[in-house]
Automatic annotation (TrEMBL):
GO molecular function: peptidyl-tRNA hydrolase activity; ribosome binding; translation release factor activity
Keyword set includes Chloroplast: no
Keyword Hydrolase part of the UniProt annotation: yes
Domain of life the protein comes from: Bacteria
Organism of derivation: Salibacter halophilus
Residues annotated as domain Prokaryotic-type class I peptide chain release factors: 19-35
Family under the similarity heading: Belongs to the prokaryotic/mitochondrial release factor family.
Gene3D superfamilies on file: 3.30.160.20
Designated name of the protein: Aminoacyl-tRNA hydrolase
Keywords for the protein's UniProt record, in alphabetical order: Hydrolase
NCBIfam families the record matches: PRK09256.1
């Protein structure tokens, strides 16, 4: 992911601010420090159709009904810092969703583990045999 890609996404963002919740007294009641970022994935020009499909699959819980990725931040008392944190969260979320997961390499059980499994099963079978009533 390049800086050009990042700049395209940042220009396509829709920002909304509101009053933050929590502690802060009068300050929290007067200032709009909570930042919400909305990025419309479908209308984005910086992402290919294959990447869009992957984003929709991976981030379906963070995408609203309008098809926008929604990121919120109200960690600090500063709107500017909250915006920076939200942008970083957005960027990290996009990168994580677009990263391809490594394929798991299947491994075979070792000879020793196979032998141990067979021996354990035989031992269990013997124990169950001993439980049997000799008159049956």
């Amino acid at each position: 992911m390049t800086d050009g890609f990042k700049n395209i996404i940042l220009t396509e963002l829709r920002t909304q601010t509101s009053r933050s919740s929590g502690k802060g007294g009068q300050h929290v009641n007067k200032t709009e420090t909570k930042v919400e970022l909305f990025w419309n994935i479908e209308e984005s020009s910086g992402v290919t159709s294959q990447q869009k499909k992957r984003l929709f699959e991976k981030l379906k819980n963070k995408i609203n009904a309008d098809g926008e990725l929604h990121i919120t931040c109200e960690e600090t008392r500063s709107q500017i810092k909250n915006r920076e944190i939200a942008e970083k969260k957005l960027w990290d979320t996009i990168q994580e969703a677009l990263k391809k997961s490594k394929r798991r390499i299947k491994t075979k059980p070792t000879k020793a583990s196979q032998k141990k499994r067979v021996d354990d099963n035989k031992k269990k079978g013997q124990i169950k045999k001993l439980r049997k009533n000799p008159l049956d």
